[in-house]
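Subject: Sanity check before I submit

Could someone independently write out the structure tokens for this chain? I want to compare against mine line by line before I put it in a report. The sequence has 906 residues.
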Amino acid sequence: MRSLYAPWVRTRLRAAPAAAWALALLVALTACLAAAFPRALDRHQDAGLRRAVADAQPDRSTLRLDAPQPGPDMTPEQQEKSMRPARLATEYSGILDSVPAPLAVDPAQSSYGVRTEVPMEVPDTFLARPHGLPAQVTLAAQSGLAGHSRLTEGRLPRAAAGAVHRTTAEVEAAVTAETAENLRIEVGSVVHVPGLLRGPVAVRVTGIVTPREPSGAYWSTASLLRTPALVYLPGDPDRRAYWLGALLLPPEAGPVLLGTAGDPVRYWNLAPDPHGLHGYDVDRLKSALASLENGPALREARLHTDERTEVTTDLDAVLGSYERLDDGIAPLIAVAAFGAGTVALVVLLMAGGLAADRRRAELALLRARGASLRGLTVRLLGETATVALPAAAVGLTAAVLAVPDARLLPAALAALAVTAVAALALPLRAAAAHRTVGVHSARTDITAVRPSRRRTVAELTLLVLAAGAVETLRRRGTADGDALMSAAPVLVAIIAALLLVRLYPLPLRGLARPAARLRGAIGHLSLARAGRGATSAILPLLALSTALTTAAFGGSVLAGVREARDAAALLAVGADARVEAVEGLPSALPGQVRRTPGVSGLTELSIAYQARPGGRQQTLPVAGVDPTAYAALADRTDLGAFDGEQLRRPASAKAPLPALASPSTAQNHGTAPFEIRMQDGTLITVRITVVRDRTPALSGTDFLIVDRAGLSREAARPTVLLLTGGGLDGTALRRVAEPRADVRLRAEERDRYVDSPLQSGAERVYVAAVTAGAGYAVLTLLLSLLRTAPERRALLARLRTMGLTRAQGRRLLVLESLPQAGLAALGGVLTGWATIRLLAPGIDLTALALPPATSAPVPAELHTDALSLAVPAAAVLLVTVGVAAVQAWWTGRRGSVTELRVGDAR
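---
Independent answer below. Compare away.
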């Protein structure tokens, strides 16, 4: 086998090194992009999951295992032994072994120990008493205090191993700096904690510490260890409060908690390791959590600790929130992936078709001389595989280096698929073209070849699939999408391309006749040449149409995301900038802000967030405005425009004030007059006359807008300034307004909406898909023109011997290329527009545009973006004209005799 095929491969590669290098470059580039796609998805998903877990408070993400104090069936010595650090450490190691994969635990932030569950009131009068109520404390003997804190005063508490019992009269403790400051604890202070069936336990404070990582799970799983709480008495009309703090005992002092009235418990806090979490493991993570909360893992943990051990965590809710975001974004990414992948597939097939067309005579001669179809196919496969396999390996290596820290298997499978297509394209195309032995091939013009029944059946099948996918997507949306629905834009583009190929000869035939009657032969000759194009022009049309549709769809998605964020930011801020103070703005501030660079308009508002309508307890935000100025602002921002005269205060002081209300407020209060008690205690009577679902002043679902002239002087005092203008300087505004007021800019608010790496990663994937589609579209044009380049050069050479000038030659090549490119551009624009209009009702961009925690105040819908339709189509025409002009110029540099003598086949 080696002696049979190696010479063929070596000879062919040496005979055409340029073609081999071009194929290698194409395969390496495509394999790199194909392999980088799943790795980029993995990285974005991992980053999104880790951000979700990191952003969740440790009291939600930490797995808390709690076991009550030892039961009465144990001896006092056994009870004390179960509270000592040696036993707890052994149990902690057993728990770590029982945590099921892929759940990863961060040992640096995990902890264990004993604590009192019930706060205990202490009688010491030196502790802070804000309303005369005695302070309460909890005791905690948690592991790792020295490694997670810095000693700022005194020393860390100590206790000899085995020296502390439930009857010990005095132990040492430390407190955090916040606890010491708020409860007025100093080094040397002694806190007397109530005992159980014994006297109080004296806890002597020996040191004050500062947490090394205050937001870490060690300190924030139970934030009371770090920060004391001011607890208000429930139901107290005077809202009296007391301080609740924690005293940090050494782990060896754990048994003393058995002698207190605080109901001690043993605990093991397992902090998840964000770096060990992966987006593709979410389902397994949820199963692991379920097993640990109420399953086999919990039973195993109880074997190591106590049969009454319980596990509590909200990590499953965090994973559910991430999964909902991922499920909302994944179908949109799949649409982009199908589009870019289809174009890349077509380009690979075109490369194989180009090689088969240019070697048609060679392969036909081999078949005529006795070469079997199987043997010829295997030889060609060995030739292409020799080039494709190393190139794909290079592309895969480049993708792994460019996108690290992701799974290798999906990337390797993607690169392998590219290799298979690239290696099989030429052999299968040659096998199909040379099934029968023949030296002379039949004419393959588009206008001469009649579509076969097989082709008709295939096109109808694709039409049914595309129609079914579009209808499914319109009915169900992308939430329950599958591969067929994600491929719907591509299927629509393919159907449109096939229709273009069917209709391609008709306009050519119609234009050829009138062109023949014109002066000069360029127009008629170019149309005749375009009409005699080979049937392999189907693939270029498919690639161009699919690439243009993908670019239009991806560009429209990005435009819809951008507009949704702009609209949401505008609704949240109310204008280009918002300056707000709760207690009212200084009288001089509006003038100072108006003189700030970039401010072109300023509207003053008086907002009372705690106004109460009709004596109800429920509050209703009420904004007092100048009707004329506010109506102009609403019209300029397109947030519920109205006629300012509709809110003008009536001439009669007894008449109710006209009001603009939200739909829910209007539904609750109707059109009859009703009273509202403002924050300053005054009463106003209003009647709803205008209903709008949005307004610049307030972004909630309940609001009321009235004329400021009808309010009291205190209620009409401006609290908000809404600013408009281009190029607002946030630094200058804050320099003028802060600290008297808060400043919010619409541009900054918009930037906050990219909440998760999953969202930003999806946007980058879409940009990459659009860019890849455009690049492969250009490559399609180049391959299409390369296929006919030798024939075109020979044609120009022959025509120059008949008197054709160089300018006429350039026009001939350009006009010959325009019909196919023009049809592809026009078809791509129409297909992209139709695809977006058809699929828009089933696609929701909210998950991609806005953070999961933000309820979408504006619809994030897909709609047609004119630039995304026009720019790629125009680029196709420009590239076509440019390549044809360059080809004509390059041909003109070579003499006609040289061209005519190069190759008999020309």
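---
OP: Matches mine. For the report I'm noting this point. The first helix runs from residue 2 to 15.
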